[in-house]
């Protein structure tokens, strides 16, 4: 008992410190706020890509990086090489650990350099290639990123996020990115990271769904679930159109 | 993008007018020369952003429409030799099946891509050059048109004697030739094997085979070739839809609307052109595609990685 009484000031100090930490924690829980508009992107008959807006806020004095990521999986590619004077596919390359889509936006251009932990540098650490010579791994990793960039599925947008003072010692974050026309209908994730002195302090993630609706969805289900019917339908439509066109043109011009 | 349409099987959006224009241009050539146009359309669709497997399968589907329209137009003009077409078709189906098996073996040994590309360049180069030179010579000599040229004194006579020595001689009234039934069957098989290896309908090989080896008149060649291509592509479309799910109906419909219109114009214009003029034009297009492919094979690619069979 005496022992307890003797250490009372220490216990009080510890409790007070923990309480302050707890309060700080509750403040941090709301310190990075993120919203994506629209949260669901619908692929309809006239879909040709879509702008998605990122809005949010974080405490003043921080920088921001936003990442848009698709599910990680395996991709099978062909490696080109030279055989005599000719360039051709010379083998298969399996890419593991790469997201189907990756876009990164930052509030300052220097956040997305070769040395930064965000962007393509962080991706490279997680991607493995099989089917390429060991001494050419780096070269083909770069080629893979270039290929995805050319497909508009990977993008680096330094300065793509704007920070504006929002009062209450906070900054408003805004940015836009374009989901390309060839994006797959699946579940994506958008994450906003608050950065100070080059270090990630906190991150908030929200889901972004891409789904097929209407005529494209109907056609996909027909093509995959009733493939024979789909094939016959395709042929019948083609023959019918061919005949109609032939009939319409009958006697419609000189021979 | 204005007037863009989403193509669900291709997984991409593309401009409707661009597709319609592509279909129209290739359909025009189809009606003009009696070729399916697969050797032109598939590379053009790939360039427009369509995965190669979807481009080839959907192209087969649109060729069904173009060749229906073209066969119909040529049938009305009396240019289809159904007897010859049927024999070529039987040979083509046998050859196509053999070719698919051959490709499977080549894929297992890892040399399929090399064989496909080299076959393309050689076939296009040989056919294009031969047609071009031969047609140019006959145009200069002002020999009668519409009939295959009976020049080159020694070789054709040996060939003709060989052809006459074969069993099962048959009269093909529409083409005005008497041949062994083995000829169209064997040649159809040969074209079928090449078409399967190259993944095309085979019209651009079939037309020269009919002209130079079966000695058919150019206008009957065009109609008969379209008739044969029609059935080949019906088979390919259904097979691709069932096994690979690569037939994009939306893409095919836009292409076929353009191609059927184009085929009608092509069929009509073909009546105004002489046989040798048609052959020179087709030879030029075949040679341009060959040169483009050859450059693609020799020129270092921008990227050393590519998507396997599309996207």
Runs of chain B in which pLDDT lies below 50 for 5 or more consecutive residues are: 147-152
- According to CATH, what is the class of the largest domain in chain A? Mainly Beta
Strand order of the largest sheet of chain B: 1-2
N/C terminus separation of chain B:
21 Å
Structural class determined from secondary elements of chain B: mainly alpha
Q: SSE string of chain B, helix = H, strand = E? A: EEHHHHHHEEHHHHHE
Query: What amount of the residues of chain A lies in strands?
Result: 35-45%
Total number of strands of chain B? 5
Overall shape of chain B: globular
Number of domains of chain A: 2
- Biggest pleated-sheet summary of chain B: 2 strands, antiparallel
CATH topology of the largest domain in chain A: Immunoglobulin-like
Number of strands of chain A: 13
Placed side by side, the strands forming the largest sheet of chain A appear as 2-13-12-4-7-9
């Amino acid at each position: 008992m005496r022992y307890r009484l003797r250490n009372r000031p220490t216990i009080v100090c510890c409790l007070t410190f923990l309480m302050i930490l707890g309060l700080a924690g509750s403040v941090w829980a709301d310190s990075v706020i993120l919203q994506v508009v629209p949260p669901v992107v619908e692929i309809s008959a006239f879909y040709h890509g879509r702008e998605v807006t990122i809005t949010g806020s974080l405490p003043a004095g921080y920088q921001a990086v936003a990442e848009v990521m698709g599910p990680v999986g395996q991709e099978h590619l062909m490696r080109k090489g030279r055989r005599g004077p000719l360039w051709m596919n010379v083998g298969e390359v399996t890419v593991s650990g790469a997201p189907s889509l990756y876009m990164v936006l930052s509030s300052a251009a220097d956040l997305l350099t070769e040395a930064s932990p965000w962007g393509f540098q962080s991706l490279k650490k997680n991607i493995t290639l099989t089917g390429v010579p060991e001494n050419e791994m780096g070269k083909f990793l770069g080629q893979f990123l270039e290929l995805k960039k050319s497909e508009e599925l990977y993008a680096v947008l330094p300065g793509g996020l704007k920070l504006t003072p929002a009062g209450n010692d906070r900054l408003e974050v805004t940015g836009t990115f374009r989901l390309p026309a060839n994006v797959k209908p699946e579940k994506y994730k958008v994450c906003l990271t608050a950065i100070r002195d080059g270090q990630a302090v906190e991150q908030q993630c929200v889901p972004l769904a891409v789904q097929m609706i209407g005529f494209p969805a109907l056609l996909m289900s027909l093509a995959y679930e009733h493939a024979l019917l789909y094939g016959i339908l395709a042929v019948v439509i083609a023959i019918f159109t061919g005949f109609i066109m032939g009939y319409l043109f009958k006697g419609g011009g000189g021979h | 993008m204005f007037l863009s349409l989403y193509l669900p099987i291709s997984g991409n959006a593309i401009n409707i007018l661009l597709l319609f224009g592509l279909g129209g241009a290739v359909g025009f050539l189809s009606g003009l020369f009696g070729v399916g146009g697969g050797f032109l359309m598939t590379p053009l669709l790939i360039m427009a952003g369509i995965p190669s497997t979807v481009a080839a399968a959907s192209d087969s589907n649109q060729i069904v429409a173009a060749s229906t329209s073209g066969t119909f137009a040529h049938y009305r003009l009396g240019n289809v030799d159904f007897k010859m077409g049927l024999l070529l078709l039987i040979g083509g189906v046998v050859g196509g099946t053999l070719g698919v098996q051959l490709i499977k073996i080549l894929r297992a040994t890892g040399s399929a891509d090399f064989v496909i590309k080299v076959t393309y360049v050689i076939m296009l180069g040989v056919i294009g050059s031969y047609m071009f030179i031969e047609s140019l010579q006959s145009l200069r000599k002002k020999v009668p048109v519409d009939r295959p040229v009976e020049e080159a004194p020694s070789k054709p006579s040996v060939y003709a004697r060989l052809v006459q020595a074969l069993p099962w001689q048959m009269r093909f009234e529409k083409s005005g030739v008497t041949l062994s039934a083995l000829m169209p069957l064997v040649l159809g098989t040969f074209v079928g094997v090449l078409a399967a290896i190259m993944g095309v309908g085979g019209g651009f090989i079939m037309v020269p085979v009919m002209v130079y080896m079966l000695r058919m008149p150019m206008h009957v060649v065009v109609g008969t070739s379209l008739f044969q291509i029609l059935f080949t592509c019906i088979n390919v479309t259904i097979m691709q839809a069932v096994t690979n799910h690569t037939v994009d109906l939306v893409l095919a419909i836009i292409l076929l609307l353009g191609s059927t219109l184009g085929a009608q114009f092509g069929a009509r214009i073909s009546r105004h052109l002489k046989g040798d003029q048609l052959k020179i034009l087709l030879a030029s297009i075949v040679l341009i595609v060959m040169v483009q492919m050859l450059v693609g094979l020799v020129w270092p690619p921008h990227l050393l990685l590519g998507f396997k069979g599309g996207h």
